[in-house]
Structures are given as structure tokens and as C-alpha cells.
Amino acid sequence: MKRPIGVFDSGIGGITVLDSLIDVLPNEDFIYVGDTLNCPYGVKTPAEIEQLVTNVTKYLLSQNVKAIVIACNTATANSKHLKSITNIPIIGVIEPTARKALEVTKNNKITVLATQATVNSKAYYNLLTQNNAEVHQLGCPEFVELVESGEITSEKSYAVVDQVLESLKGKDFDTVILGCTHFKLLTNQVKNVFKSCEVVNSGMPTALELYSILQKENLLETSNTPGKVIINTTKDANKMKQIISSWFKKEYDGVYEIVI
Q1: Which residues are tagged catalytic?
Q2: Number of domains composing the chain
């Protein structure tokens, strides 16, 4: 079915999920929205986040999307109300990512690194503990700031990540969930601290979930033509294009500034 798939995040982090979506579904069209004007979501109240999620969702629905991927953990944790807005498939990142972590852990001890809003929602905590996992959670708002400012390979990024994760050093968990899509861009820094841990991010688990749902709903694109990818932002298209240019290598039509 030749209708686009909507994908959104509070900023550029969700493009790490978009990258995996294109890998799994290369013939689909995607419309991405990074709500950079309102980034970060993770320091806002649940009511504020819900309203922002509603605004972006309504924009994507106006673009005739056939499904929406919430490529943001904080937004996913505050998105239950969307069922009253639309009946198209909406796929969040939390459940697929939690399931992946439960698959790979060997000692059932899992740490979740996320925004404070995601930590407070207990979305990961509840899913994981229901499956008998022992869970540590840590809010890492500094990580979002690093990524949005383009600090993803610098010495500063390694120093900040090391400092923020200090309280978790020496604990015996074997799996780390990057519970914010921005954090995938700091995977090397996290692995530098937790050298023996499995690090799980949201991209591929969410992409496989989307594929499964589209197939079940008979919504998969059947042509063999590469899909069209449009990236939108609510603030400073040039800055977004510059920051993602070093790591997002998929073809896309451009970065555009939109008003929602």
C-alpha cells in the first residue's frame, strides 16, 4: 500500500530508529518529524508530553500515513491516549526493546538508562519486573543534551557518560537498555563503562515489530522501488542536517522546517 509511514521523536534521536526501519522496510515511504522546538520531552510533565505527542500525531495523520512509529521512549510512555485519535497502527519503542532485553539477559538483571520522564513512568520497570527481571533505572538527561549538540564522538561525551554512570559501576547487571533513542549515538561511550554488558537499543526491535504489524494488517508496500524518506523538524533544519550528516547515511529528500 503506497502510503507513507510516520515516525517521530523529540529531536534527532529517532533517526537512529528510522535508520533501522529503512533497513527492514527499504521500499516504504517515511515521513520523519523531529520536534526539536520542544526538545527535550524528558523534563516535561506527563500532560505537556501528551499534548506534544497529540500535536505531532495530528500532523502525521494530515500526511495520510498508514502507520506511526513513536521513535521516542518518553513519547511512547505518554501515548495511550492516541487510541482515541486514530485507529491506524501505532508502534512504540518500549515493548519491543524490553522484549529484546529479556531475550539477551542471562542473569535477569537489567539496567535502563532513559530520560527522567521515562524513568518516572515506570513503563520499562513494569514490563521487565512482570517477567521476573531485577531492574535498575537511571535518568540521564545529560545524554540528550550531548546528542542534540552533536557531541557524539568527543572526549567530552566520554567524560560525561562516565560521570553520569558512576553510581552503577560495580553492580552485577548484564544487560543495559538504552531507553532513549538519542542514546544509541552514545553506545560506544556506554560500552566503555560497562564493557561486559549487552547493550540493547530500540532500532531493530522496533523495525521488526513494525514489519510484523504491517504484514498482519496487509499494509506492506509490494513494489521493489526504494522508498522516499522526508525528514522534518520544528526548529532549524540546517542544524539538524549538519548534526546527522556524520552518521545517517541513508538517502533522503532533504530536511525541512515545519510548523505544527
Answers
A1: 72, 180
A2: 2
